[in-house]
Specification:
Helix 3 crosses helix 4. It is rod-shaped and about 95 Å long. Strands 3-2-1-6-7 form a five-stranded antiparallel beta sheet, with no helix packed on it. A two-stranded antiparallel sheet has the order 4-5. The chain is an alpha+beta fold and 217 residues long. It is built from six helices and 13 strands. Keywords: Disulfide bond, Immunoglobulin domain, Repeat. InterPro entries: Homeodomain-like_sf, Ig-like_dom, Ig-like_dom_sf, Ig-like_fold, Neural/epithelial_adhesion. It is found in: Nucleus.
Length: 217
């Protein structure tokens, strides 16, 4: 009875695959070795080999922590759990647009303005080139630990004030005694304040508002 338990335990250990062994299988498959041949060579089922190959991008992107020594390819369950802990993924997300921008070292969004870099997988930076007004919003750095860790920061994009000439009134000729409406459309971030004044310096009188400068009318 004890012998059966030992055999089962030994068999379970052999099924454990280290990150290094998985990378070795992926490398050989990319060199042209068939799944069936890999299954025979490593004593694993074809379904297990296929499972490794399906996750090859995530396996290849994992960076082992410094100082980690590989003692054996036949790892204990403790080693396997340690590897899972080390396989921590970092993602950058634009919360307002519900858009996944980067995942680990990969840029997911189609925009070429986004890049990601890191310092030994401990500090991660999201880089945005040619920042535009639509980039404004909340950005979240998310780590896929058992209990998700996240940090949200707000990016404010400052845009110098300018006049929308297509929507702003130009010169007008009207008859005396008639009504006229002039429109000034200013844009920018923060939103600019519009002030009306006459070029000759005379007062402007609109209803109860009167003065040389009028705002928010």
């Amino acid at each position: 009875m004890d012998r059966k338990k030992v055999c089962k335990k030994s068999s379970a250990k052999k099924k454990i695959m280290s990150i290094e062994l998985k990378r070795e299988i992926i490398e050989k498959h990319e060199q042209g070795v068939r799944v069936v041949d890999l299954s025979r060579q490593y004593g694993r089922s074809t379904s297990m080999i296929c499972s490794v190959l399906k996750r090859k991008e995530s396996i290849k992107s994992v960076t082992p922590a410094k100082g980690l020594t590989i003692i054996s390819k036949l790892r204990t369950s403790l080693h396997e759990n340690m590897e899972k802990v080390l396989m921590v993924w970092v993602a950058w997300i634009h919360k307002n647009r519900y858009t996944l921008l980067t995942l680990q070292n990969r840029v997911i969004t189609r925009s070429s303005r986004y890049k990601v870099s890191h310092n030994s997988c401990r500090t991660w930076w999201l880089h945005i080139t040619n920042v535009q007004e639509r980039d404004r919003g909340e950005y979240m750095c998310q780590i896929n630990t058992v209990q998700m860790i996240k940090q949200v920061g707000y990016l404010e994009v400052v845009v110098p004030p300018y006049l929308d000439e297509e929507l702003t009134s130009s010169d007008k000729d009207v008859r005396e005694g008639t009504d006229v409406s002039l429109r000034c459309v200013a844009k920018g971030s923060p939103e600019p304040e519009v002030t009306w004044r006459r070029e000759d310096g005379q007062e402007i009188s609109i209803g109860k508002s009167k003065g040389k400068e009028l705002r928010n009318i």
